[in-house]
């Protein structure tokens, strides 16, 4: 009895996984892939097709963050390499830092991560940014634009419109 329940849960998880091929994603909802903790994550199919969020995050990162954090999350003399930070930073810590910012004083020098909490061009795409940087941190995405990608589904467009109008 117990065994068959486990088997059904396992088969159910497999069926739900759908197009997930490799990487941390265990399921997808409306074009967004989620890991076992329910946090957004990247997905790359066998044929090299990336999820929409990784692609979108690549673009947003290079519009809002690269000036300080360097191209491709590689870091600069001013700000840390987020490709490295996201190897240990959790989704919640990432969000907290981007929303609130952080100012650190060391040896008379000031290091400022601005607060983006009221910047819609960042806040409406915070999952995109996280997913892209996670793909870089996991070593899944090279220093390049993810060319081949899934379509932007209606649910993503609707979320974006609602968020930007807010
Ligand atoms: C004006 C420059 C600047 C911009 C623009 C900027 N950051 Fe930062 N960021 C920093 C600095 C400097 C730090 C390090 C702060 C410190 O010393 O702790 C930092 C730290 C962070 C951290 C914490 C890293 C860690 O290892 O703890 C995250 C996450 C982060 N930034 C994300 C972003 C994202 C995402 C964007 C784009 C939306 C962005 N930053 C844009 C300057 C910037």
TrEMBL record:
UniProt keywords, alphabetically: Heme, Iron, Metal-binding, Signal
Gene Ontology terms, MF aspect: electron transfer activity; heme binding; metal ion binding
One Pfam short name: Cytochrome_CBB3
Signal peptide: 1-22
Cytochrome c domain location: 52-164
InterPro entries, A to Z: C-typ_cyt_methanol_metab-rel, Cyt_c-like_dom, Cyt_c-like_dom_sf
Superkingdom: Bacteria
Name of this chain's protein: Cytochrome C
Origin species: Prosthecodimorpha hirschii
Taxonomic lineage of the native organism: Bacteria, Pseudomonadati, Pseudomonadota, Alphaproteobacteria, Hyphomicrobiales
């Amino acid at each position: 009895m117990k065994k068959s329940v486990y088997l059904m849960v396992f088969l159910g998880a497999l069926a739900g996984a759908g197009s997930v091929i490799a990487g941390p994603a265990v399921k997808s909802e409306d074009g967004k892939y989620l890991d076992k903790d329910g946090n957004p994550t990247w997905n790359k199919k066998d044929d090299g097709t990336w999820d929409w969020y990784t692609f979108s995050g690549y673009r947003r990162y290079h519009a809002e963050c690269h000036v300080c954090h360097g191209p491709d999350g590689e870091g600069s003399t001013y700000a840390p390499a987020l490709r490295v930070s996201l190897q240990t930073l959790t989704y919640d810590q990432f969000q907290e830092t981007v929303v609130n910012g952080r100012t650190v004083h060391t040896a008379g020098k000031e290091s400022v991560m601005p607060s983006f909490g009221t910047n819609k061009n960042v806040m409406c795409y915070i999952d995109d940014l996280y997913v892209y940087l996670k793909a870089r941190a996991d070593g899944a995405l090279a220093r390049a634009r993810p060319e081949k990608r899934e379509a932007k589904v209606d649910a993503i467009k609707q979320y974006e419109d609602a968020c930007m109008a807010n």
